[in-house]
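cron nightly-structures :: item 1 of 1
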Amino acid sequence: MEKALVRLKVGILFGGKSVEHEVSLLSAKNVMDALDLDRFELVPIFIDKAGRWLLVDSLDALLKKTAAESGGAAISHGQLVSFVPGGKGRLVHLSDMVSSTYVDVVFPVLHGLCGEDGSIQGLLRLAGVPYVGSEIIGSAIGMDKDVSKRLLREAGIPVAPFYAFKRGDAIDCRKVLEELGLPVFVKPASLGSSVGVAKVEDASELQAAIDAAFKFDAKVLVEKFIEGREIECAVLGNDDPIASVVGEISSSHDFYSYEAKYVDKKTVKLTVPASIDSTIADRVRTLSVQSFHVLCCTGMARIDFFLSKDGSLLVNEINTIPGFTSMSMYPLLWQATGLAYRELISQLIELAMQRFALNEELKTSF
C-alpha cells in the first residue's frame, strides 16, 4: 500500500504594523491561491495593525474591510497566537496558553517595517522555524536604502548620487541641490511601495518633502533624478541564485507612485520581456545576481534599475519581499521565464527548508 504524502504546514504571515499593510493582504491572497495544496497545508496567520497575531480561516473578509476595521473583525473570528522561542514552529493559543498549532515553515508576505527589515526574520530564527526569503542581515540591509546603496557603491555597482539624513540632522537644502540638481526624489529610507516618496522640481518644496517623508521613517534619502526607463529583474536561489528575464514598467504618472501601483492601474504598462538590447538585458541579469550577493540576500529578491538614454544602468533598489499582487513584477517575470506561479511558490518554500537544514548543521558549542 502506497504511503500517504505528508503535507508541510505552511504559515502564510501577512498584514503587519506597516503603511504597506493593505498591499500585504493583496499579495497574501495571491500566494495562498497559488499554494500547491497537494504538497502543502495552508495556515493563515494575520498580523493586525495593533501587532496582534491571529490564526484566521481566510483573508476574504479582511480584504472587504478597511485597515481600521480589519483588526477588530479579525479579533472576533481569529485565534490569538504567539510563536514560542525554540518551539520549532509551535504557535501557542493565548486564550488558554495550552493549546497549540504547529507550522513546518513560514512564508512572510509582509512589506515594509516590521516585515522585511529583519524584525520578523529574527523572531522566526529564535522560534526555530524555517522561513521564506532573506535572513536577518539580508533583510535589514535590503530594507535600508541608504545602507544598501552604500554597499552597492563600495562593490562597484552603480547607483544614483544621494544624500541620507537622520531625524534631527541639520539639512542644508541649498548644498544638496547644488550637488544633485533638480529635480530630486525624496524617499523614506526604509519603506517600499513608493509610500512617502515625492518628486521635487522646485527648490522651495524640498524641505517640505523631507518633512513629509520623516512622518514615515527616521531616515530620509534625497536622490538625484535619473532620466531613463525603469527596468526590473527577479532573482531566485540561495548560494547559486538565478535571474529571470528582464521587464519594464512605464506609467503616465510622474513616477511609479503608490497610486499607480495599486489604485490607478490603468496608467501603468508592464512589458515582459522588456524591449531592450540583449546585451543590456544580460548586463541587468548579471548586476542583479551580483547585487543579490553583495547585499547578503537569500531566497528571493527583485532588483530595480534605471536605464539611461546612453545605455548605462544604475541600481535603484532591492526588494527582499517583493509584491505578489496581480500587478507585481516578481511573479510575472518568473512566469515569462517559464516558471509557473504555483511552482515558484513551491520552490521558495523548498529553498527555505534547504537553508534551514544547513543552518541546523552549524556547531553551537566549541
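cron nightly-structures :: done
The first strand starts at residue 8 and ends at 15.
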